[in-house]
Amino acid sequence: MTNAAPQTETMLSGATDAQLPQLHEPRNAGTELDLDWVARVQANTSAIERRASTIGARRSVKKDYQAAWLCRAITLIDLTTLAGDDTAGRVRRLCAKAATPVRHDILEALGMGPITTGAVCVYHDMIETAVDALKGTGIPVAAVSTGFPAGLSPFHLRVAEIGESVKAGAAEIDIVISRRHVLTQNWQALYDEMREFRAACGEAHVKAILATGELGSLRNVARASLICMMAGADFIKTSTGKESVNATLPVTLTMIRAIRDYEERTGFKVGYKPAGGISKAKDALVYMALMKDELGDRWLKPDLFRFGASSLLGDIERQLEHHVTGRYSASYRHAAG
Length: 337
What we know:
The protein has helices spanning about 10, 35-40, 45-60, 65-75, 90-100, 105-110, 125-135, 155-170, 180-185, 185-200, 220-230, 250-265, 280-295, 310-325; strands at about 75-80, 120, 140-145, 170-175, 205-210, 235, 270-275, 305-310. The chain is an alpha/beta fold and about 325 residues long.
């Protein structure tokens, strides 16, 4: 992969994902709960950590190739604001940034056409504002739901919250699982919960947040990933961003290998979303390299891979400006909201 970028020859000559045919896989329909399959899932922690530690050292892209990869990374971002002091004005500014994530002069210097982020992610109360601000852009609104971030509100209210967010216009719902089901190995309860969440989403796609920093072990992460996919999750996601440990490379490797195994068994492709702590362009490149190595180029499209991030976009834009001008600019010149 060194000196090779996804769609490099087209991405640096003006064509973008928005101009290329969008690929959409058959939606994951889920399967019956197979506890024998779950019991066979193991995770060799030391081997996973060794493999994860090498990816950044062995895989690198430079110059025009790096610029192409960073442009692709922008199209994979769920640009997010999940703060208690969110206002309609802040969300509208974020949506404007999602629709025009990089200054026009930088894109022109790169030979790029327009690009957008993959989605905008907000709390339920801001869905209608975001939908209105993004009208005509084709950018979906994702909403966090089910008692985010702890997922400890009454179950019927968590299900109802999904319905309200879909009704308000959210095209994607990021739900949080009950961590206690994983910690007590109650796989039937986790499966049933996820099935009901998926049903409540209807046509909206559902991302299952595992809160991996609270699951205790990589084996639990692998098994929870599998259960959520069996129950029909369209994406599996690492974290809420509120845990003490969020996305890491060992967790990512564990989850995407579960995705690979699930596809080999069922034929369904499931998406992956690392979230929390990914704020630097170089980190995004490492995650993308790992996806390419483990799952292939198909998982470098926004229908199968997203970054949950709020500050990542600003650093990518700074790196692209440096590529064009040879100078780094102040971060305030690339504000996201």
